[in-house]
Amino acid sequence: MDKIDAAARHTPVLLQRCLDLLAPAFEVDAPVMVDSTLGMGGHTEGVLRAFPHVRVVGLDRDPQALELAGRRLAPFGDRFTGVHAVYDEIRDVLARLGLPAAHGVLMDLGVSSLQLDEAERGFAYAQDAPLDMRMDPTTGRTAADVLNTYDERDLVRILRAYGEERFAPRIARSIVAARAKAPLARTGELVDLVRASIPAAARKTGGHPAKRTFQALRIEVNAELEVLERALPESIEALAVGGRIVVEAYQSLEDRLVKRALAAGATSSAPPGLPVEPETHAPYLRLVTRGAEEADEAELARNPRSASVRLRAAERVRPTPDHLLPRTPGRRAA
């Protein structure tokens, strides 16, 4: 594992487009970018090479990713700082480092190349492995815990909500029946169970039959949507005026949250029909992408994992009005 070359294993998605979108935010003295989902460091390396005056703080909940990225980025010295943290902690991390704000925030959401490629992590349905799926393998419940302890109704709920799985009741019923004989422990068991639960005609389309179940479990295990829902306003508040946030999402549930958060900041909060918009209700973000951008043919040929990416970006144009500041538990509004 210590000989893994992170650069050889990881091609960052839409790297040049991300650099182009972030560039205007770095036209200041001593700019700081937060790579909220460091992974194996591909996007951060691109930023550090393209902008020699930028410092990057890289966050990741996965200690293995931090180690690999740290080795990859060691040549950049103190221009890079890796931090073991979840990205909804962005403002706390900046405060601990004595940094007042970020000029760029980059989020590359979902499961990382490292997590998919390491069979023993249990993220991939194509390889038999322990049912883990934790992005931070040092803490929290595993996929096996979810499968063996959730009641049938909750299993249906997460399969429907997070996997958009139309055969959720059948799969949940099969899980409960199987675990009554012996606890589920391996991804291969789950794949066989899901395949047997989906009618043969439905298995002919839509890709691997276990794809949606694995997505749902991963999201539940890592509380991905709850964390993202907190992280988006926290990241916007971390931005200096003139700073930019760039987010790459890979499934509709994530992209919906991103779209909603950026659109809210780019829309007046004044009641409709007022003859003059009060300054406190003016938008505090400006959208810098038209809708969600997708990978073009050249990007797809270079990096097949870009097939489902949806990229959105916005620029902070003013401080957030007091009445719209995020109310984070344990944090006083700034």
Automatic annotation (TrEMBL):
Region (Disordered): 293-334
InterPro entries attached to this UniProt entry: RsmH, SAM-dep_MeTrfase_MraW_recog, SAM-dependent_MTases_sf
Cell compartment(s), UniProt: Cytoplasm
The UniProt record lists the keyword Iron-sulfur: no
Record GO terms (molecular function): methyltransferase activity
Enzymatic class: transferase
Protein EC: 2.1.1.199
Keywords assigned by UniProt, alphabetized: Cytoplasm, Methyltransferase, rRNA processing, S-adenosyl-L-methionine, Transferase
Domain of life per record: Bacteria
Free-text function comment from the UniProt entry: Specifically methylates the N4 position of cytidine in position 1402 (C1402) of 16S rRNA.
Family to which this protein belongs: Belongs to the methyltransferase superfamily. RsmH family.
Protein name: Ribosomal RNA small subunit methyltransferase H
